[in-house]
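User: For my dataset I need records formatted as: sequence, then structure tokens, nothing else. Please produce one.
Assistant:
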Amino acid sequence: MSIVSLPGLKKMIEEISQSHNLPKSSVQQALREALLKGYERYRRAQRLDRFHFEEDYFDNFEVDLDVEEEGFRVLSTKTIVEEVSNTDHQISLQEVQEVASEAQLGDSVVLDVTPDQGEFGRMAAIQTKQVLSQKLRDQQRKLIQEEFEELEGTVLQARALRFERQSVVMALSSGFGQPEVEAELPKREQLPNDNYRANATFKVFLKKVREGPHRGPQLVVSRASAGLVVYLFANEVPEIEDEVVRIVAVAREANPPSRHVGPRTKIAVDTLERDVDPVGACIGARGSRIQVVVNELRGEKIDVIRWSPDPSTYIANALSPARVDQVLLVNPEGRQAHILVAEDQLSLAIGKEGQNVRLAARLTGWKIDIKDGAKYDYETEHRKIEAMKAAAADVEEEENDADEDEDEPLETLRGADHGSLVEQFAQEEEEEEDALA
């Protein structure tokens, strides 16, 4: 069989493997693909303006790389036919039976079609240099995708490299001894109080591994994800890691709509142990545990509240630090509640630009309306609610079905470990982004 010589092939593969941190098998695969492109270019040049090659014309060709002999061959898989109409894809039965009498029509044979011309070797070398770097990048992307798909939804250490437009490009460590790879931290996933100076380190939530050949980083990370809060608490509170204390729900506003409002998070926790205070366990002695989380999130305000199976108690807790006088579940089917507070607690319950009540509503899944208890007219509000129920009677069944679907995530959060919570919060955030888009 003929062979096109590539002097120094073995050494070249080793050097590329080390410099790109790729296994030799991946480098050889990239070389085979590049050399095949060189053969295609050679063939197209031979029949320029005389024959049209379809896009998939060379799909039955492959390159056999011989590292020991430092060269390669071009092989073609051809179908045995009675009468040949295309010599690249077919071979006659009579020709094959001269060397293999048992051959039958429709069988396939692999033949060496390596050109003998020296010109082909020079042209292949030129094409290889042009294509090889792209193929090596493709191999690296493939390996990154395979490795980090298993890490999607986890928290990793990252180092800021540079800004590209409004995104921060970060060097991400996989934790498996692999070198750092680049990841993108988009503007919407950044924290307003972070200082992304060069080489500053951060804990980031691996939100998405992009599929396919993308220019730039394939990994998308987040500092604004609720999953990061879950991880930080689980890492700092042994009771959460041991599943004595459980995180039931998280509502986070890392990038408030107004620059006058700082980032804030509400986290609901619970325990099945009577002698354990879940809120106290998360806060720690003199706030030592929660302070570690706050420092990592650059001063973000965090409210840790006690989850309760009673909606009224849960909603009242969620509006902390405001004191709630009464919770009226005016429409349990529609998950609507009126919250009565003293006049001096109104602004605290609502929060700056509505942030406190907004986070409480997201945390509990209830529509919350804050009312001044001293001015609340029970009869008037009751009539309004009854009129609303009557007007919606024709779609009540559909609304109930939707409400039941909304209830399910809250129930499934109880008893789940923090790893599954991270994945669920990430999925919910992605669904919210898709809906906004």
